[in-house]
Amino acid sequence: MNKFVGLRLCASVFALVCAASASAQMADNGTSGEEAAASGETEIVVTGRAGAGDRTKADTSYAITTMSEEFLRSRAPTSVTEALKSVPGFWVEASGGEGSGNIRARGIPVDGFGSVNLLENGLPVQHDPALGYLNVDQTFRIDETIDRVEVVRGGPSSIFTPNAPGGVINFITRRAGESIEGIAKYTFGPTANQHRVDGWIGAPIGDWKLGLGGFYRVEDGVRDPGFRGNKGGQFRVDLGRDFSGGKIDLSYRRLDDRTILYTGLPLTRDADGEIVGVPGIDVMHDTLASPATAQLALRNGTGGIVNFDNRDGTRVKLDQFSASAEYELAEGWLLQNKARYRESQTVRNGVYPAALTRATDYVSARRSTLLTAYPGATQVQLRYASDGRAFDLAGQNGNGLIVENSVRPVSIDERELLNDLRLSHSFEIGGMKHDFAVGGYYAYIKDSFRRYSATVLEDVSGNAQLLDLVALDASGRVVGSQTQNGVSRYGSEFANGTGTSDTFAVYASDEWQVTDQLRIDGGLRYEKVKTEGRSEGSRSVNLGDPSTLADNNVLTGSGVTKSFDRKFDQFGWTIGANWQFSPRAGVFARYTAAFRLPGVGNFITDPTARPVTQKVKLSEAGVKYSGRWLSLYATAFNTDYDSFAISNNVFNSATGGYEVRTEYADTRAYGVELEAIVRPVSWFDLALNGTAQKPEFRDLRFTQLVSGKPVDVDYSGNRLLRVPEVSFRVTPGVNLLDNRLRAQMDVEYYGKRFGDAANTQKLPAYTVLNASLRFAVTPEISLFAYGDNLTNKLGLTEGNPRSGELSSGQAGNQLFIGRPILGRSFRFAASYRF
């Protein structure tokens, strides 16, 4: 993309907006309230600002995407990340299931939720949304208690929210009204064998308003692991009261849920070079997870047992208490406070493919070692661990392949207390209005982290089976084994740490209405974090079982702990301007110096780590038009990200362990985001959101050893990991039968990407079709149908991170591992509102 394409496109869109605005004003001097609300002209937003007055989406000085409850219901997203596919500027990976998604905001190359924060009613769901194996989307679910979603991209998000340099996603819950109301919904998914019930009811109780809601569901999963993949639910109770000059809201949320984590699958290329699944496995609906690895008793370095239970998947038990209050101290003075306390216990179980190889090569590489270890042996054999059947090295399952997987149970116990206090004042000086706010934020986190891994050997099939490599004597009797019940190495990883952090921040902002059309917005934030704790070191032990080599190199705790006590602080700021030259149209520009401080998660496994404060410089300029026939928001952006840490976490097949190397780089992404809705007639509309960008490493140079000699490597100018240059979603929709019937289709396109910084592991472009249908049987009863990935398209969201993200060890291989999107699936639902 040409360096100035964003400016050129913005200029063109600006001219279009001016023309459309002038034409609309000549044709009509105003719109009805209903039409204005539909177009976003009067849609009040609360995210990304701290003033006492109201601000509409149409006159914000930053890029914001809003999603109503009807919008969410029209797609029924299966996860938090799935819901965010409609946000331009976000590259969303939801192929891992309901939790543990990845979001890249405006090219910031950080996994998980490391560049954005998730809010619930304006306060973080989790202070650090990427807290080492505990992504914030693991502890939050979308259900019918959600009223709407507001997503701020870049802009002032980092001024009012911690750990949010790329943006914030604010889930705003329902609040009961003056009369009894509610909704009940049942969803059946035949593809995943899903049964789900959602509900919410709100009612006045004297001067108070009570809301109750949540969901419960059971399902095997679109990728059936041979056991129930997802089971559990969420419950919420809200109590609120309005009084003269203010209001108070109290909330309790309980989450007890289990979700399976989908990881990579074996892939190959056909005669035309196209990526396809290997024979013996359906890459659209299969998974390597299986009953064979559902429950494993794994030996640790102290002679005890670690119970791995993949039926639990990611098991989260969370209790969250929230309270918020606001009071108008005097005319134009508003005092607000939001507080939250939560406790969560998470066990994250997963089967992670580490290395894919031909069985003949695997056996050949280990034959000599095994025969040497057991002098009485004359031959080796690969066989199934369950029944001793010989594995056909040439063509078992039609592929003759084996895969080494890491089975990894990780447990995280976390407690945190958050509080945000702010004072806002709206006043006039010299005929100019100011909406000023000052606030303070505090967060306390206590985190404990434990990790164990073992390497297992499996065949390549849907619901993979465990394998043993055994040594046989001349009579065919087993005299020893490389593996034990499918485990080729016990204790391939170890971590045990605990820590706390205290974060203090102060911020201030001012929205200065210079004229009726021109407003200047500014904000400042100073944040300081102190983190301390300790982590146990590791040592290798030989458990001494003579029948197997699997226990010869078991990592366990050394009994020696190292402590950490670190402090960090940083100052950030933003300034923007909005020119609303028409009630329906305007332009804005903004510059933000954002940051993300290190936290307890950076040290809990390595007290000697030397993380740096992540600094982001964001520039953006946009145009917006909100009219009867057309709503248009276009934003050009530039993101400079300093000191990005990229880790080469490579699986070593010879040892069954991991080798880690970290390099630092500066990155840049510039481009254009577009949101538009065209409504030419009452029965048809067309929505478009898309991003065109140039995401690249600005400076990634390092030296590595090749055949024992130092070699300089320069990846500067290469594409950032897994971020496409072009992505968009087009949604045509029709409303028929006096709006009782709504049908729409999503056409999603994602350009090619790369799985490593060397840009050698190419992830091809792909297009996905989704559709939904709503029919209102009565004003109270509605029926829904959803179809996802209708063409069963194979699209890869990532390669194999365990082969290296600096330079992939599987690039160019005929056989490799990648994580595809989920295959074709269908769901049907019925809802009743009262």
UniProtKB/TrEMBL annotation:
Signal peptide as annotated in the record: 1-26
Topology with respect to the bilayer: Multi-pass membrane protein
SUPFAM superfamilies referenced in this protein's UniProt entry, alphabetically: Porins
Matches recorded under InterPro entries: Beta-barrel_TonB, Beta-barrel_TonB_sf, Plug_dom, Plug_dom_sf, TonB-dep_rcpt-like
Pfam families from the UniProt entry: Plug, TonB_dep_Rec_b-barrel
Domain spans labelled TonB-dependent receptor-like beta-barrel: 300-790
A GO term for molecular function: siderophore uptake transmembrane transporter activity
Occurrences of domain TonB-dependent receptor plug (ranges): 57-168
One GO CC annotation: cell outer membrane
Protein family according to the UniProt entry: Belongs to the TonB-dependent receptor family.
Protein's UniProt name: Cyclic nucleotide-binding protein
Organism in which the protein naturally occurs: Sphingomonas oleivorans
